[in-house]
Amino acid sequence: MEPSSSSSSPSTSPLRRTPFSTYLFALLSFVVFLTVLYSEDLSCLFGHLGFDINASDRSIANTENEGEKLPFAIGETIKGCNLFSGKWVRDNSTRPVYQESDCPFLPPQVTCRGHGRPDKEYQYWRWQPHGCSVPSFNATLMMETLRGKRMMFVGDSLNRGQFLSMVCLLQSIIPEHAKSMHKNGSLTVFSAKDYNATIEYYWAPFLLESNADDADVHRMSDRTVRKGSINKHGRNWKGVDIMVFDTYVWWLTGLKFKILKGSFEDKVKDIEVLSTEDAYRMAMNDMLGWVDKNMDLKKTRVFFTSMSPSHNISTDWGGSPNGNCYNETTMIENPTYWGSDTRKSIMQVIGEVFGSSRVPITFLNITKLSSYRKDAHTSIYKKQLLPLTPEKRANPAGYADCWHWCLPGVQDTWNELLFTKLFYP
Ligand SMILES: *[C@@H]1O[C@H](CO)[C@@H](O)[C@H](O)[C@H]1NC(C)=O
Ligand SMILES: *[C@@H]1O[C@H](CO)[C@@H](O)[C@H](O)[C@H]1NC(C)=O
Ligand SMILES: *[C@@H]1O[C@H](CO)[C@@H](O)[C@H](O)[C@H]1NC(C)=O
Ligand SMILES: *[C@@H]1O[C@H](CO)[C@@H](O)[C@H](O)[C@H]1NC(C)=O
Ligand SMILES: *[C@@H]1O[C@H](CO)[C@@H](O)[C@H](O)[C@H]1NC(C)=O
Ligand SMILES: *[C@@H]1O[C@H](CO)[C@@H](O)[C@H](O)[C@H]1NC(C)=O
Ligand SMILES: *[C@@H]1O[C@H](CO)[C@@H](O)[C@H](O)[C@H]1NC(C)=O
Ligand SMILES: *[C@@H]1O[C@H](CO)[C@@H](O)[C@H](O)[C@H]1NC(C)=O
């Protein structure tokens, strides 16, 4: 990622990166061309072209690091090892990484055992990449690195889960009196006083300005995002040292998405309707533009977490009709599984945008590894917004939350992978 692609040193980095991005872009164009031509299954095509899971990860890694040391790096992962290709292994000795009851910062939306979940198998799995190992999370190293610094998670409620997991992974080494968490509107800040460090979460479900930006009241079906508005939220992200973005689930309304061209105050609103993919592509490009303009990538790191899969439709994995993640206690064994809620077209947009960009962002491709974990969602085991009526109570699957994850759980693994990419890129 060094020299930085920020505007201060535009001459070196594009030169070094161009051949690869051009290659990737050409490859993707070719894939799209072939898809149109033969309407073949994409995964099959990727296989034919050797654009396999490993190769695609390398491609992303290469755009960020071609030999020079990244900020915070203390070592490196075995060359060519795709951290995101692997399997879950049962681990009774190191899991869970913390106990639900030991982390006082977990809100009642994620504490599944505390809300009556009877099984706890979901807490005992560790991610094992095929080609290498994930180093164990070292909270001391992470906190020393964060001394005098800010780490921020920006995005939707899935990123909030990852933020909470990070807080829990770290908080145990900080004494009671020296840690605290405060929420003010869109921003939640965990402070570690003795380290002068903060780990923050900022609610911006689309990254851009939208009509769902109220951190507490944002349930709506008619979602609109304002074009070119990333600075609305972005001004609150300046000065962050380690940034983690995500955005996905709120884009899923249908095949089309409404983009507001003027402002939300206009009496007559100027609306442009785009395909969800094009709208998403716009947001990704705006995010990269913001990073390029506002972050010094010689000193900071930026991560992007891919789409968090849901398990809302049990027929996806061959379950009974009308079911979902409710009452699921085992994971999906089929290695090629890909749920219908998880859009491949969005993943393709991410690949295209990152692949052709000179802005070095580290991609956390957690989609596939999480897609096996139908057993790990909060389901009915969380605080409900409203008291349950007897009718609701009688049909638990009807109100199960199959998007969010229990903690401790799957999102601790996302952070272990983030830890790995941060220190051993
Ligand atoms: C872990 O514990 C479970 C339940 O106690 C047991 O069934 C399983 O065999 C153990 N697995 C390993 C790898 O030790
Ligand atoms: C991915 O890489 C690992 C280790 O480098 C290797 O064992 C595995 O066969 C590769 N998978 C594919 C699909 O190429
Ligand atoms: C964790 O990191 C600290 C600080 O870098 C180091 O002193 C310690 O040895 C590490 N612990 C382990 C278990 O690697
Ligand atoms: C505390 O950290 C902030 C950055 O988050 C920095 O600007 C400030 O100088 C630090 N203060 C001290 C006393 O180190
Ligand atoms: C909360 O944020 C607002 C606007 O960012 C600010 O004016 C206010 O002082 C903050 N309140 C507290 C208690 O920090
Ligand atoms: C889950 O699936 C049900 C039934 O198909 C649907 O009514 C509901 O809107 C879905 N919920 C979410 C959050 O996707
Ligand atoms: C939950 O699953 C078990 C077996 O997997 C089944 O026996 C039981 O009836 C299910 N419970 C409900 C309420 O669906
Ligand atoms: C993320 O990983 C999945 C499965 O391993 C792969 O199909 C996809 O192409 C990867 N996405 C990108 C953008 O590399």
UniProtKB/TrEMBL annotation:
Keywords: Membrane, Signal-anchor, Transmembrane, Transmembrane helix. Its main location: membrane. The chain crosses the membrane at residues 20-38. It is found in: Membrane. GO terms for cellular component: membrane. Residues 134-420 form the Trichome birefringence-like C-terminal domain. The keyword Magnesium does not apply. It comes from the Eukaryota. Residues 80-133 form the Trichome birefringence-like N-terminal domain. Pfam families: PC-Esterase (PF13839), PMR5N (PF14416). Belongs to the PC-esterase family. TBL subfamily. This is Trichome birefringence-like N-terminal domain-containing protein. It comes from Ilex paraguariensis. The lineage of its organism: Eukaryota, Viridiplantae, Streptophyta, Embryophyta, Tracheophyta.
